[in-house]
Design goal:
By secondary structure, the chain is of the alpha/beta class. A hairpin with a 5-residue loop joins β6 and β7.
């Protein structure tokens, strides 16, 4: 029997006190990404999913700012040799919707794929990810002084 070494990936948690800090956390996270990776982002409205995506896009594309694809469903960014597709599943309901918006094509073509609101369509995304699959959950923390912070949990799904 071959010697097998298993890697265990512990979830990482970060706290952000501003939209810019959320982008900086994402830029740091982006250093580990490969062109075929899939990043799933979830959290309530206004949590910072698109801001986090902007940090990833900024890392690969310079000063480009990610726009929310809520109405277009998908935005594409070509950054040097990397093609990044940014999806928003907020209005999607099922696998057929994912097929129609080009989500599976993006994964199969080896593009980096970032999707917000993946919890709206319940499927096993691991089956479709060509590269690594990261699940990122962003929560809103409200303090007694009515200040908001973000709790960003990053988990590599095996």
């Amino acid at each position: 029997m071959p010697d097998v070494k298993l890697q265990k990936f512990e979830p990482e948690s970060f706290e952000s006190d501003s939209p810019r800090n959320t982008e900086l956390i994402a830029e740091e996270f982006a250093k580990r990404l490969k062109p075929s990776d899939f990043i799933a982002l979830n959290g309530p409205l206004g949590a910072g999913k698109t801001k986090f995506t902007s940090g990833i896009i900024r890392f690969f594309c310079g000063d480009t700012i990610a726009a929310s694809p809520t109405y277009s469903i998908m935005n594409n960014y070509r950054c040097g040799g990397i093609n990044i597709n940014h999806f928003d599943f907020y209005r999607l309901k099922n696998v057929c919707d994912l097929e129609n918006c080009g989500f599976f094509d993006s994964l199969e073509s080896g593009n980096m794929t970032i999707a917000e609101w993946t919890d709206t369509v319940k499927i096993d995304y691991r089956k479709y990810a060509a590269g690594n699959y990261y699940s990122i959950n962003i929560g809103i923390i409200r303090s007694k002084k009515n200040k908001e912070k973000r709790n960003i949990k990053i988990e590599k799904i095996l």
